[in-house]
Specification:
The protein is an alpha+beta fold and 120 residues long. The chain contains three helices and seven strands, in the order αβββαβββαβ.
């Protein structure tokens, strides 16, 4: 879960996050699937990278680099699929992305914030 203290940190890459917008006709429920898209000018094409998985933004899901930066301690395993740049991959990438979200995404603006977990 994303914590407000992380989101508000100066070092946090807020500009890399976008508001969730579900496709019309979807069931309007919050999916557990995580989606990351690397593209040029918000265009899905053969050169884009698409990741779909179950990872949360946590050390448990991604691991923790040791202080000496020589090891990665992994405490949990999650499932994800990467669709790398490859010829004739635009169709499958479009099918995956547009089935999950509206694309291109809408950036957070003003006081918009993602869902965040608060410890009470």
């Amino acid at each position: 879960m994303l914590r407000k203290s992380h989101w508000c940190s100066k070092e946090f890459p807020r500009s890399s996050f976008c508001a969730l917008s579900l496709p019309e006709g979807s069931l309007n429920y919050l999916s557990h699937a995580k989606l990351a898209v690397v593209s040029t000018n918000n265009v899905l094409d053969d050169d884009s990278v698409v990741y779909v998985g179950s990872h949360n933004l946590s050390e448990a899901a991604w691991g923790l680099v040791t202080p000496d930066e020589k090891h990665l301690n992994v405490a949990n395993y999650e499932v994800g699929v990467i669709f790398p740049p490859s010829n004739n991959s635009t169709g499958i990438k479009n099918n995956i992305v547009y089935s999950l979200v509206n694309f291109p995404p809408r950036a957070y603006v003003g006081t918009d914030e993602p869902f965040m977990f608060s410890f009470v």
